[in-house]
Amino acid sequence: MLMFPKIIGHRGIPHLTPENTMASFRAAVENGADGLETDVQMTKDGELVLIHDETLDRTTNGKGLVLTHTLSELKSLDAGSKFDPAFKNEKIPTLREFLEFVSGRDLLINIEIKSGVVLYPGIERKLIHMLHEFGLGHKTIISSFNHYALVTCKEIDSGIKTGILYMAGLYNPWDYAKTVHADALHPLFYSVRPETIGGMKASGLLIHPYTVDSPGDMKNMIALGASGIITNYCDVLSKMKAGG
Ligand code: G3P
Ligand code: CA
């Protein structure tokens, strides 16, 4: 009997709310998420904030790089109106605000370190330090496309769980994952090739495909035995779980 995968809200629930805002994280949980995925970047003054892009332009009324703004400058921005004016009071959340929200809730936390286009020296240590401050290290998987960042995380804390993000049809990705001491595979769901499924399952690694949005693709990922599914539609996956 297959366990139903964890329902992991990608940036919250971004088809109903502005992505990576506290409104989106709250709504994802209200719509059946068992876990939350979010993206962490660093401000000019070294604060950790949750925003997908390295730049402010797409999701806020600001411009330019996150890295060239202080937290107080970022907090003056509107991170909701571009999605819908009804969300004009939404701000870019800090990691701390997010961890305050998830504390005491039974949620899997997936924090993606966005250090590829822009490098943020020291982001791994700051992230892990704050996870431990909240006692949330054991509920968290740190993922990244920058696998050097994941190795750094393991050097800081060998007990923290990491997941490799990848988009390509890697050959035996579980073997590679072990070379960077990862605990989980986070493949783009298209790159979960039929010939890799047996090896993925046998590896004992957690399997968290992204970003799985259509009911057909959700069913395929359930059938392969994914441990969790990262989706923009946690409401749809939650209804599927309930048999709807
Ligand atoms: O963690 C899965 C997914 O979020 C990775 O891609 O670009 O949506 O952050 P992206
Ligand atoms: Ca992400």
Describe this structure as you would to a colleague.
The protein has 244 residues and is α/β, with parallel strands linked by helices. The chain has helices at 22-30, 71-75, 95-102, 123-133, 147-156, 173-179, 194-202, 215-223, 234-241; strands at residues 6-10, 35-42, 48-50, 108-113, 140-144, 161-166, 184-187, 206-207, 228-231. Strands 1, 2, 3, 4, 5, 6, 7, 8 and 9 form a nine-stranded mixed sheet that branches. A hairpin with a 5-residue loop joins strand 2 (35-42) and strand 3. The model has no long low-confidence stretch (mean pLDDT 97). Calcium ion binds next to strand 2.
Give the helix/strand layout.
Layout: E1 6-10, H1 22-30, E2 35-42, E3 48-50, H2 71-75, H3 95-102, E4 108-113, H4 123-133, E5 140-144, H5 147-156, E6 161-166, H6 173-179, E7 184-187, H7 194-202, E8 206-207, H8 215-223, E9 228-231, H9 234-241
Parallel strand pairs: 1-2, 1-9, 2-4, 4-5, 5-6, 6-7, 7-8
Antiparallel strand pairs: 2-3
Structural class: alpha/beta
Radius of gyration: 17 Å
Order of helices and strands: EHEEHHEHEHEHEHEHEH
How many strand units?
Answer: 9
Please give the count of helices.
Answer: 9
The main β sheet shows up as: 9 strands, mixed
**If you average the pLDDT, what whole number results?**
97
CATH fold type: TIM Barrel
Strand content: 15-25%
- CATH class equals Alpha Beta
